[in-house]
Amino acid sequence: MRELAIEIGIRVLLFGVFVFTEFLDPFQRVIQPEEIWLYKNPLVQSDNIPTRLMFAISFLTPLAVIFVVKIIRRTDKTEIKEAFLVAFSGLGFTTFYLAGKLHCFTESGRGKSWRLCAAILPLYCAMMIALSRMCDYKHHWQDAFVGGVIGLIFAYICYRQHYPPLGNTACHKSYVSLLDQNSVKKEERPTADNATGLPLEGITEGPV
Q: Chunked in runs of 10, what are the mean pLDDT values of the chain (208 residues)?
């Protein structure tokens, strides 16, 4: 419980840093005369995907997907605890999460296109959001591309903090669940070993 409180506290702190930086004065870049044509774009009054909706999709989609998977699989409370810790990692994390749960890259899941399509769907939505920002003239394609690469890298780092590699046979289980299973097995082994070493009453040694 203490570790969970620390993890939640760190995420609240990071969110506070994010909100703080959002209200800082932006950097004023000097635009040279030869590059003014890059910024002569029409003003779009209404975005295809509003900023608030974009953040809501990025934050709430992982949380919704994780809980739907938990309800369908009826997993234990330790994995539900993980949902709170990794819910706000974005659509890239959701893709890695679904790929692990559906075993898209293991022997049991390879060759099943519906699993791969389901896993790629959140990444496809993220790509559509990035394209909409370019269509609204909010960003250049370089911004969207570099931002997508950085987002995927950090999403994978966050995913590997809680789950094994996607090619692992146990990629659908979090490290917390695997650790609990290993501890239970270690507790069961001594009892099984000691059963053969118990003294047998009523048995006496015969003459040598």
A: 85 91 87 83 79 81 80 59 53 91 90 91 89 85 88 90 91 84 68 48 47
Question: CB–CB of 118/182 below 8 Å?
Answer: no
Cβ(129)–Cβ(54) under 8 Å? Answer: yes
Q: Are 93 and 117 in contact (CB under 8 A)?
A: no
Q: Cβ contacts of residue 59 below 8 Å, gap of 6+? A: 87, 88, 90
Report whether 93 contacts 66 (CB < 8 A).
no
Between CA 74 and CA 177 the distance in angstroms is 14
Q: Distance (Å, rounded) from C-alpha 24 to C-alpha 8?
A: 25
What is the structure's pLDDT at 77?
A: 53
* Distance in angstroms (rounded) separating the CA atoms of residues 7 and 69: 22
Contacts of 178 (CB under 8 A, 6+ apart): 164, 170
Report H helices in the chain: 2-22, 51-73, 77-86, 91-101, 113-135, 141-162, 175-195
